[in-house]
């Protein structure tokens, strides 16, 4: 089967960058496409040339990376990247060359210029189109006014060409069905979660250098890894950690700043450490150094960072917005409301019993093996594709 993936890169990152460099949608797509390749599919990725907010990707625009053909189209107007909008207008001409040769088009994200360019071409060639929104449908996740205008004027042009919407969790499925009530067509819906490759987390690097660099000593470490954005609940977590006042514990906040760093710096002390964006071995070393992973996010799709932490054997402290009730059901962690008191109490309770914490970490790894490996996810995705191919 030939799968054509139209990818809108969210966080100004190159596709198929060095291993472990990026998270979120990019990390998800790297895992999914490699799993599809292993399953015998041919995969082509069409994306923009975005590398940073100011500069384009400077490598080959059409190349084979890890067995996947990746085609990048130049953006016409780079300043719009600051509003999460690409302008790769040459993508239409590329799509006209590629789409006749493939079986199915898989869109990633909904409200994009790329979708406006490509979906009419897919329709002309009677190619089925499926969509993974990645938790971006609801207005509560940001840019509500822009989304509202987009849905009024542009989204109907794309929605009518989509046969299937793939949600990450039940809450996103509900959001998708609600979103489609405003359109004239009704696609099919299903749930296929994100996944990880557990083998990448079986042999984490030694944590000594990381602990030494950030003056962690032999402290119990609570790790947050993600964008420093209000929607991630990172400020509430920092305040809860201070309120809990846990002897011998430190909170490590790892991730790029998206508006919250000044506030977090005002809260930071010797027990709250901001590392910035971690890549490569240092990112894995952070997981190896941690005893508990915390993400009290609001409006998350299904966090890759949480799945990676669980694959690393870490118990998790989550919010309902992380859309992972299985973590509590499997006794792999706790799910609590996003407020200072609830998080502080949960931190105190979880860190007070090291034996229970260790068992929860083992349960987390078991849950990943049972439900969230990429080979399982790729098989579920293939079952969706085969409905239309």
What does this entry show, briefly?
With 389 residues, this protein is α/β, with parallel strands linked by helices.
Task: Report what the structure shows.
With 389 residues, this protein is of the alpha/beta class. It has two domains: 207 residues, Glycogen Phosphorylase B (Rossmann fold, 3-Layer(aba) Sandwich), CATH 3.40.50.2000; 174 residues, Glycogen Phosphorylase B (Rossmann fold). The protein is built from 15 helices and 14 strands. The protein has an eight-stranded mixed sheet with strand order 3-4-2-1-5-6-7-8, sandwiched between helices. Helix 6 links the parallel strand 7 and strand 8. Helix 2 runs parallel beside helix 3 and helix 8 packs across helix 13. The longest helix has 18 residues. The chain is globular, with a radius of gyration of 21 Å. The termini are close together. About 4% of the residues have low confidence.
What would the keywords be for this entry?
Rossmann fold; 2 domains; eight-stranded mixed sheet; 14 strands; six-stranded parallel sheet; alpha/beta; 389 residues; single chain
Helix/strand/pairing category:
alpha/beta
Number of helices: 15
What helical percentage do the residues reach? 25-40%
Which CATH top level class of the largest domain fits? Alpha Beta
Q: Write the CATH architecture name of the largest domain.
A: 3-Layer(aba) Sandwich
Q: Are there runs of 5+ residues with pLDDT below 50, and where? A: 9-22
What is the count of distinct domains? 2
Give the CATH superfamily of the largest domain: Glycogen Phosphorylase B
Mean pLDDT: 90
Overall 3D form: globular
What's the main sheet like?
A: 8 strands, mixed
Radius of gyration: 21 Å
The count of β-strands is 14
């Amino acid at each position: 089967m030939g799968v054509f993936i139209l990818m809108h890169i969210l966080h100004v990152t190159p596709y198929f960058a060095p291993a472990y460099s990026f998270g979120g949608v990019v990390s998800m797509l790297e895992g999914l496409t490699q799993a599809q390749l292993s399953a015998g599919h041919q995969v082509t990725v069409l994306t923009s040339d975005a590398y940073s907010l100011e500069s384009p990707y400077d490598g080959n625009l059409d190349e084979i990376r890890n067995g996947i053909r990746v085609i990048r189209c130049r953006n016409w107007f780079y300043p719009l990247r600051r509003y999460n909008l690409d302008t790769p207008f040459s993508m239409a001409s590329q799509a006209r060359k590629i789409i006749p040769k493939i079986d199915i088009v898989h869109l990633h994200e909904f409200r994009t210029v790329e979708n406006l360019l490509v979906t009419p071409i897919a329709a002309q060639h009677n190619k089925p189109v499926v969509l993974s929104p990645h938790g971006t449908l609801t207005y509560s996740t940001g840019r509500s006014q822009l989304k509202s205008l987009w849905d009024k004027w542009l989204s109907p042009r794309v929605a009518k060409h989509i046969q299937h919407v793939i949600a990450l969790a039940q809450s996103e499925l509900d959001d998708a069905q609600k979103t489609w009530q405003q359109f004239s067509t009704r696609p099919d819906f299903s749930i296929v979660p994100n996944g990880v490759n557990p083998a990448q987390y079986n042999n984490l690097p030694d944590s000594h250098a990381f602990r030494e660099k950030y003056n962690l000593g032999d402290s119990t470490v609570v790790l947050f890894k993600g964008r420093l954005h209000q929607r991630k609940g990172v400020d509430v977590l920092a305040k809860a950690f201070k309120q809990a006042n846990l002897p011998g514990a430190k909170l490590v906040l790892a991730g790029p700043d998206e508006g919250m760093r000044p506030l977090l710096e005002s809260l930071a002390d010797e027990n709250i450490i901001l590392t910035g964006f971690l890549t490569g071995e240092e990112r894995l070393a952070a997981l190896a150094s941690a005893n508990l992973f915390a993400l009290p996010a609001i409006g998350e799709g299904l966090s890759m960072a949480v799945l990676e932490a669980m694959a690393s054997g870490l118990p998790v402290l989550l919010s309902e917005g992380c859309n992972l009730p299985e973590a509590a059901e499997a006794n792999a962690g706790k799910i609590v409301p996003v407020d200072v008191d609830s998080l502080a109490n949960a931190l105190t309770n979880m860190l007070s019993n090291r034996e229970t914490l260790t068992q929860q970490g083992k349960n987390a790894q078991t849950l990943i093996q049972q439900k969230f490996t990429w080979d399982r996810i790729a098989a579920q995705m293939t079952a969706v594709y085969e409905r239309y191919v």
